[in-house]
Amino acid sequence: MPTLKELSSRPERFVSGHRLCPGCGAGIVARQVMLAINKPVVVGCATGCLEVSSTIFPYSAWKTPWVHSAFENAAATISGAVAAYQSLKKQGRISQEAVFVAFGGDGGTYDIGLQSLSGAAERGHRMLYICYDNQAYMNTGIQRSSATPLGAHTTTSPAGRVLPGKLQHSKDLPAIMVAHGIPYVATAVPGRWNDLVTKVDKAVNCGGFAFMDILSPCRLGWPHEPALTMEITRLAVETCIWPLYEVVEGKYRLTYRPKEKKPVTEWLKLQRRFSHLFKPENASLLEEFQKSIDRGWEQLLKKCESA
After folding, report:
1. What's the rounded Cα separation, in Å, for the pair 265 and 286?
2. Is the pLDDT of residue 7 over 90?
3. Going by C-beta distance under 8 Å and a sequence separation of 6 or more, which residues neighbour residue 140?
4. Which of 48, 53, 79, 161 would disulfide-bridge 125, Cβ 3.0–4.6 Å?
């Protein structure tokens, strides 16, 4: 794993001057991922907050070859770039080693981009797909996605007299990617940069398709105070809402285990999208949220122990 000193000496590939909101997790994720890779990089980015805010013509925050894809096909676009690169390399027209990375939000990854992601994974292209997971369609108006947690208030699952927020649990996309038989799957948070950087390094050197799901707080859609972004991601880990693990060739391994598992309320109370859950009439939903996290944590521990 590169040290903090080594990372600080590397040239920035995702630079300041973009229009992402103060406290936005996506920009922090992009910067950490780019610093973790010490080779030439080609980046693809699905339509979304990261793309819209970092490439407003005629400016760009990316100091690397970069291509914009539609909302649903970042994985297909970069898999095509990988195929072209391999062909040119075989012809002797390119000799330089390169890394290929696709970025997509949860809307463009969990939902409308799932077919593209699944196809690229099944074909085994040598690339890394990063989902910066802010748990809703933030760029288009804070609509719920299949990554949105139980009880969260969004514009399409509004908390009020009819609904207590989203009624469904979030999808386990990392498990779906593991089922593809790809060599590397991992979760990460920007608040634990050393874990994230280590996993990116492993992912780009795994020899095939790699997928990482990285929690990315949205100060507008969650909403929260901008200064709390990193603390919120660390609390997600300490409450086991977002456990840190990796799956290498199908074998699960925890990369961080909380010394004392904190209650989910510690994480929920910092975000106004969950404020209604603390009302007496929603106590059962809050209890179900905790039970769901507890079940998921125990299941993950069993997978790691049996690996």
Report:
1. 8
2. no
3. 107
4. 79
Tell me which CATH homologous superfamily contains domain 4-306: Thiamin diphosphate (ThDP)-binding fold, Pyr/PP domains (3.40.50.970)
Amino acid, res. 279: K
What does each C-alpha distance from 174 to 55, 244, 292 come to in angstroms?
Answer: 29, 11, 17
Task: Calculate Rg over the CA atoms of the chain.
Answer: 19
Tens of pLDDT, residue by residue over 64-81, are: 999 999 999 999 999 999
At which residue do the structure tokens 């970092």 appear?
54
Rounded-to-5 percentages of helix, strand, coil across the chain: 40, 15, 45
Supply the pTM of this predicted model.
0.97
Say how far apart CA 149 and CA 169 lie, in whole Å: 5
Contacts of 294 (CB under 8 A, 6+ apart): 240
- Non-local (6+) Cβ contacts of 212 within 8 A are 128, 129, 130, 131, 185, 186, 187, 188, 199, 200, 203
Residue 4 has pLDDT above 90, yes or no: no
Q: Are strands 184-188 and 128-133 parallel, antiparallel or unpaired?
A: unpaired
What is the phi/psi pair of residue 180, to 5°? Answer: -75, -10
Mean pLDDT, residues 279-291 taken together: 97
Asked if 104 and 74 count as a contact pair (C-beta separation under 8 A), the reply is yes
Beta bridge partners of 185: 211, 247
Q: Is the pLDDT at 2 greater than 90, yes or no? A: no
pLDDT confidence band for 307 (50 / 70 / 90): low
Q: What is the pLDDT of residues 227-256, one digit of tens each?
A: 999 999 999 999 999 999 999 999 999 999
pLDDT of 14 reads: 97
Beta strand 210-215 with 128-133 is: parallel
